[in-house]
Amino acid sequence: MIETVESAESEEAERPSISLEELALGTRVHPAAPAAEHAATLQVAPGLRTARVTAVSGREALVVFRGGRTEIKAALSPEMDADLVEYALAEKESVLVEVGEAGEVFVVGLVQTKKPSEVHVTGEKVVVEGGREVLIRSGRAALRLREDGDVELVGSRISAASRGLFRIVGRILRLN
Question: Mind listing the domains of the chain with CATH numbers?
Fold first, then answer.
């Protein structure tokens, strides 16, 4: 059974019929259930859903299904990185949630809906490969690496510094 967290919005007056929202989400809150039992009566059809994250604590998150208002506890699937869920919370991105046959809820992925304004790449080793060329550009500065071994560095002012030996080796060196 899906575990929900009570909110002020979920304490609305009970309705005897199913709402359009509940029908669209595949959720059903039993109208006869008292408010205290409300958390145990939310039922969601099995499958994949999108949701937004409202809180994260360790390997658990509170999520709200798209179009819904009820917060639901969801475990992070074993392969899901907790940092991605924190990112989804901070950036207001959607997550992909899997609901099992027995009502268990797992966050299984991140749904990216916009281009990030900043990208961070971290790791023990970072590899960027291009079959013919790699180009890194910002404004009027650029670094181009070509498959034939040519390296081109362009900028209005280029600085280089070394804490140790600064070695420039080439068959021919041309200054100006």
Answer: 4-111 (2.40.50.140)
Give the E-state strand segments of the chain in sequence order.
4-5, 27-28, 43-44, 47-57, 60-65, 71-76, 94-99, 105-111, 133-138, 141-146, 151-154
Q: How far apart are CA 102 and CA 139, in angstroms?
A: 54
Q: Which position has the token pair 């280029």?
A: 158
Contact in structure between 71 and 64 (CB atoms under 8 Å) = yes
What are the Cα distances from residue 153, in Å, to 65, 142, 170, 173?
49, 6, 16, 16
The one-letter amino acid at 176: N
The pTM (predicted TM-score) of the whole model is 0.53
Exposure string of 125-163, with b = 16+ CB inside 10 Å and e = fewer, is eeeeeeeeeeeeeeeeeeeebeeeeeeeeeeeeeeeeee
Report d(CA 58, CA 5) in Å as an integer. Answer: 17
pLDDT digits (tens, 9 = 90+) for 83-128: 989 989 998 899 999 998 888 899 999 988 888 788 888 889 999 9
Give exposure, 20-47, as e/b (b: 16+ Cβ within 10 Å): eebeebebebeeeeeeeebbebbebeee
> Could you tell me if 29 and 42 are in contact, meaning their C-beta atoms sit under 8 angstroms apart?
yes
Exposure of 176 in the CB half-sphere (CA atoms within 13 A): 0
